[in-house]
Specification:
Hypothetical Protein, Haloacid Dehalogenase-like Hydrolase, Chain: A, domain 2, 2 domains, 9 helices, elongated, Rossmann fold, alpha/beta, 6-stranded mixed beta sheet, 14 strands
């Protein structure tokens, strides 16, 4: 990776040069109640007055993430679905990393079989979620505004536009679809199966491109903004933030973050997400800027 030959001391010296901060959402910017701590809002406002751009980078949908971009006053592009989709502040498309049509075509084929008929599935595109169902079954963190979920009679036009595929249903059907996708697409995708919190025989299968993550999304954004990698900062709390924090010029892990991220990051906040940990990192950046 980029950081193999960089010491932590070298990276921390970049705090004074930071021009943008990429910030994860859940467990980082947001409290357990999906709110932003007042101290974080104040710190973000101060950073913006200093000319620092705030970039939200989330595994959630663009619609969900966009709410908080508006709350923070961010005008930077928004990274959603772990880098698979990037949209500008005005809602226009910047970058999308579409799935191979082999994924969507295989899903359609499986849906015509008896096992497939038990499943509810959705394709995530740049302008929302499309599904044959009027109320598709989606995992909690991927739920979005109902206005952005559309029932359609034909998914064929969306095959080349889908950046994420999600199926829901009984374990046996989910497993069969997952195996079929593995045979058809090989190692080009990541297949994730997990059970619904309901405890019932309801499982989710998510399919995304293997090479796409938040660091790829951040690179697209800073290229669009004309910001160098060494002028970026990143902060997160979970495994899907590791690549982004490793890519950034300097990074922080939340106090509530996982051990692997804390080991990879240059700094660990003194507070967790419920007590304004992001503000701690922003204040550190601003303090170094004021020394120069």
């Amino acid at each position: 990776m980029i950081r193999w030959f960089e010491t932590r001391g070298v990276r921390l010296r970049r705090l004074s040069k930071v021009r943008c901060i990429a910030c994860d959402l859940d467990g980082t910017l947001l409290t357990a109640r999906n709110t932003i701590h007042p101290s974080v809002l104040d710190a973000i406002a101060e950073a913006r007055r200093e000319g620092i751009r705030i970039i939200l980078a989330s595994g959630r949908t663009d619609g969900f993430t966009r709410r908080y971009a508006e709350q923070t006053g961010s005008t930077a592009p928004i990274i959603s679905l772990n880098g698979a989709l990037i949209k500008n502040a005005d809602g226009s498309l910047l970058i999308q990393h579409s799935l191979s049509t082999r994924v969507t075509e295989t899903a359609e084929e499986f849906g015509r079989q008896p096992q497939g008929a038990q499943l509810s599935w959705s394709f995530f595109t740049f302008d929302g979620v499309v599904s044959y169902d009027d109320h598709p079954i989606l995992p909690h963190y991927l739920r979005t505004d109902s206005a952005l979920i559309r029932q359609v009679n034909d998914l064929q036009p969306y095959h080349e536009l889908s950046v994420l595929f999600c199926a829901a249903g009984p374990y046996r059907a989910i497993q069969e679809l997952s195996v079929l996708l593995a045979k058809r697409t090989g190692s080009s995708i990541i297949r994730s199966i997990y059970q619904s919190g309901s405890g019932k025989d309801l499982y989710y299968l998510e399919v995304k491109n293997r090479r796409i993550n938040k660091s790829i999304g951040l690179k697209h954004v800073i290229d669009a903004l004309g910001i160098r990698r060494k002028e970026t900062a990143a902060i997160g709390d979970y495994s899907n933030d590791i690549e982004m924090c490793t890519f950034a010029g300097v990074s922080a892990a939340m106090r509530n973050g996982i051990a692997d991220l804390q080991a990879a990051a240059d700094y660990t906040t003194r507070m967790d997400n419920n007590d304004g940990g992001v503000a701690d990192f922003i204040h550190l950046i601003l303090a170094h800027r004021n020394r120069t």
